[in-house]
Design brief:
single chain; 8-stranded mixed sheet; Rossmann fold; 8 strands; 12 helices
Length: 308
C-alpha cells in the first residue's frame, strides 16, 4: 500500500480549474484512482458530468493523455488504444510501460455502455474500468438509471400520488462484472482514500481486466448540502447500502464490516430525493428498502470466501 507521504509527491492526473459542481465526488474519485498508478496513464472518458465539466473547449483539466468517448463506447476505445500499444511494443517501436483506464458514470456503464464493457472484459484486455456511480443521469437532468435506488425521486420517475419514486431496485452491476471471471473487481468509497487507492493499485497491477465501482454522491441530484459528499458516502457504507468488498481471482472478500450497522432510514432522511417517503403512511417503503439491503448483505456474507 502506498503511503500518504508518497502520494503527496505524485502529480495529480486531474488538475484544478474544472467546472464540476462544488462538492462533486467524481473529481475525488478520479484523483484517488490516478494517484494509485506508479506508471504513466492513458484515460478514456465516456460522455457525462466528468467529461463535460473537465474539458470545456478550449481548456482541459487533464494532465494525462485523455480521449473523449460517446456514452456507449469508452471500454471499446480504451481497449483499442491498449491493443495498439501492445502491437507497437511487439514491433519494438515503443518501450515504456503504461496503464490504461476508462471512466464512466452509471448511465454510461450500468446502461448505455454495458455491451462495450462486457465485450472488453470477455476479450481479456489489460485495463481498468472505473464507474463513478452517482445513481442517475446527472449530466442531462437527473433522469433515473438502472443504478438509481428504490423509490428515489428523479425527473423521469418523480415522486407523486400514484408512484412514490422509482419502483425498481437498482441493478447489481458489480456482481454482473464479476460473472465475467476477470482477475479483479471491487467496490470502493471515496470517503476512505486508503480503500480506493489500495484497490486501484491492485486493479492496475493485474494482468487482465479490472473493474472498480466507486460511490460518487451528487449533491445536486440527491438534494443534499454540497459539502456533504463524503459524509453521504460514509453513511452509505455504514448502512450496508454500499458495501466495500473485492473479488480477487474469483474469491470474494468483504473489506469493511460496520461494527454497528446504521438503519438505512438515517441515510435516506438526509436526502431531498427521499423526502416523500419520510411522510406518514410510507413506512412500508422504508421497511422494503431495509429488507432489500439486508438480503443483499446476507448474500454478500454467504459469498465471502467463495469463488465465482
Amino acid at each position: 500500500m502506498v503511503t500518504l507521504k508518497e502520494l503527496t509527491h505524485r502529480q495529480d492526473g486531474l488538475g484544478p480549474g474544472h467546472r464540476l459542481c462544488a462538492g462533486c465526488a467524481a473529481s475525488i474519485v478520479v484523483r484517488q484512482v490516478l494517484l494509485a498508478s506508479d506508471k504513466p496513464v492513458i484515460a478514456a472518458n465516456a460522455t457525462g458530468c466528468l467529461e463535460v465539466a473537465t474539458t470545456i473547449y478550449p481548456y482541459s483539466a487533464w494532465r494525462i493523455p485523455w480521449m473523449h468517448n460517446a456514452f456507449e463506447n469508452a471500454a471499446a476505445t480504451i481497449t483499442g488504444i491498449e491493443t495498439m500499444y501492445r502491437a507497437l511494443k511487439k514491433q519494438g517501436k515503443y518501450d515504456k510501460d503504461v496503464n490504461f483506464v476508462a471512466f464512466g458514470g452509471d448511465g454510461g456503464t450500468y446502461d448505455i455502455g454495458i455491451q462495450a464493457l462486457s465485450g472488453a472484459l470477455e476479450r481479456g484486455h489489460k485495463f481498468v474500468y472505473v464507474c463513478y456511480d452517482n445513481e442517475a443521469y446527472m449530466n442531462t437532468g437527473i433522469q433515473r438509471s438502472s443504478a438509481t435506488p428504490f423509490r428515489a425521486s428523479t425527473t423521469t420517475c418523480p415522486a407523486g400520488a400514484s408512484i412514490p419514486g422509482k419502483p425498481q431496485h437498482r441493478k447489481d452491476l458489480t456482481a454482473i462484472v464479476a460473472a465475467h471471471n476477470i482477475p479483479y473487481v471491487a467496490q470502493c468509497s471515496p470517503h476512505d482514500w486508503r480503500d480506493v487507492v489500495s484497490k486501484a493499485q491492485k486493479a492496475f497491477a493485474v494482468d487482465g481486466p479490472a473493474f472498480l465501482n466507486i460511490f460518487s454522491p451528487c449533491h445536486r441530484g440527491w438534494r443534499v448540502p454540497m459539502e456533504k459528499a463524503l459524509d453521504m458516502a460514509r453513511m452509505a457504507v455504514e448502512t450496508n447500502f454500499w458495501p466495500l468488498f473485492e473479488i480477487e481471482n474469483g474469491k470474494w472478500k468483504i473489506t469493511y464490516k460496520p461494527k454497528e450497522r446504521v438503519p438505512v432510514v438515517e441515510w435516506l432522511k438526509t436526502q431531498g430525493r427521499y423526502s416523500h417517503i419520510m411522510k406518514p403512511g410510507n413506512e412500508h417503503l422504508i421497511e422494503e428498502f431495509q429488507a432489500e439491503i439486508d438480503e443483499q448483505w446476507d448474500k454478500l456474507l454467504a459469498r465471502e470466501g467463495c469463488t465465482v
